[in-house]
TrEMBL record:
Residue ranges occupied by any Digeranylgeranylglycerophospholipid reductase catalytic domain in the UniProt entry: 176-235
PANTHER family assigned: CONDITIONED MEDIUM FACTOR RECEPTOR 1, GERANYLGERANYL DIPHOSPHATE REDUCTASE
InterPro entries named among the record's database cross-references: FAD-bd, FAD/NAD-bd_sf, Geranylgeranyl_reductase, GGR_cat
Domain FAD-binding: 3-172
Higher taxonomy: unclassified sequences, metagenomes, ecological metagenomes
Protein name (database record): Uncharacterized protein
Single annotated GO MF: FAD binding
Organism annotation: marine sediment metagenome
Amino acid sequence: MHDVIISGAGPSGSQCAEVLAKAGYRVALIERDANWRKPCGGLVSSRVLKLYPQIKKLNIPKIRGGVLYSADYHRVEYRRKDILFSTVMDRLELDNIMRDTAIDVGAELFDKNLAFDFISKNQEKIGIKTKSPSGVKEYHGKIIIVADGMSSKLAIKSGLRSKWKTEEISTAKCAIMEGANNLDEEFIYVYFKPYMGYGWIFPLGSNRFNIGCGIAGEDILRYNLNDIYTEFIGDPKIKEYIPGSNYKIIWSGSYPVPMVGVL
Ligand SMILES: Cc1cc2nc3c(=O)[nH]c(=O)nc-3n(C[C@H](O)[C@H](O)[C@H](O)COP(=O)(O)OP(=O)(O)OC[C@H]3O[C@@H](n4cnc5c(N)ncnc54)[C@H](O)[C@@H]3O)c2cc1C
């Protein structure tokens, strides 16, 4: 029996686990697959770096500004030397650091456990059920925190939220690529599109970058995300920064993003 059961060891779950374990609670952190790399731009704000100072010791880009392009390619650039820097990371590395920090202060990780339902007693939720390689498992706790992302089944079963509506979501595709490029490693590059769309290139250092784009609301039904992505990475304005024709794709994936509430 734990005090707190947390479903999902992404940034939200791991941060909750860390805070509660530090405060003396017995925390079970339930994760379906700790090796999953969430499709993400990997932009990490300076506020996160304050909470995880160990990240600053890594060989990471120090982002101090941005280049923004309007739909007709008007360009706005800003750079501030006087602000705390943000950075860009491989998302798997960020998740591992946050999860390990929670484990170091006492949270117990239960990996390869897919949460699929609550355990209820007298109309109260007293735990969660998971599917693990050794069969169905039950985790009991006084407090249950659902932090298993936007495809969460538990969030819907809890009655706290309903299924996403098309106008509430965006869907994005991104990749980590490697190869010679003209990116300034102090900048992120963001593009706005004439339809409900956007794109980005974020430098990762060591000739790597995260590139991606998304479409939002009803445009998800109108456009094909793979076509939009192919068009985006081949766009002549993008090619100014990544002129090569044969970048090594380290990883790629697509995922929905909520457009309402907290991302
Ligand atoms: C394409 C894209 C680009 C983005 N770019 C950025 C960016 O550059 N910077 C930024 O700050 N934010 C970005 N975001 C948003 C960011 O990814 C989210 O805000 C963040 O991941 C939310 O963290 P979370 O812990 O709530 O959920 P998630 O990161 O989704 O974590 C949920 C965790 O729960 C686990 N899980 C899921 N289902 C179950 C289950 N049934 N049982 C057990 N475990 C489960 C998952 O494996 C995962 O570890 C982006 C999002 C997308 C989709």
